[in-house]
Amino acid sequence: MRDLGLVRDGVSLNRLLRMQPDQAAALLRNSQTEAVAGSDVLKRWLAIDAANRVAWADVNAAWNDFDDGDDDEILIAMRVDARRAAKRRAKEDGR
Predict the structure, then answer these.
(1) What is the chain's pLDDT, residue by residue, as a tens digit (95 residues)?
(2) I need a labelling partner for 31 at 20 to 30 A (CA). Which of 46, 61, 67, 84 fits?
(3) How would you class 53 by CB atoms within 10 Å of its CB: exposed for 0-12, middle for 13-18, buried for 19 or more?
(4) Domains of the chain by residue range
(5) Alpha-carbon 83 to chain mean position
(6) How far apart are CA 38 and CA 52, in angstroms?
């Protein structure tokens, strides 16, 4: 099977097609750049199956919840905890 394009970090259409739609959408979202957003690979993957389009919409909705959560108490607490953990790890690593 020939490779049908490459976005970045080895994200090819062939690789995406071997994954479950939710996993492929998460990988694409994690690699999200302008190159991915407008890429032929993303467009082709979305066109192949309705499940891909649903997974892409779901992963973006979840991601957008974090973007829109500036006043959300739970997200604020998660950010504070993550920052504390990062500082603790940095201290342990001698940074």
Answers:
(1) 344 454 555 678 888 999 999 999 888 887 766 566 667 888 999 999 999 999 999 988 887 777 766 787 887 888 788 888 888 888 887 76
(2) 84
(3) middle
(4) 13-68
(5) 21
(6) 16
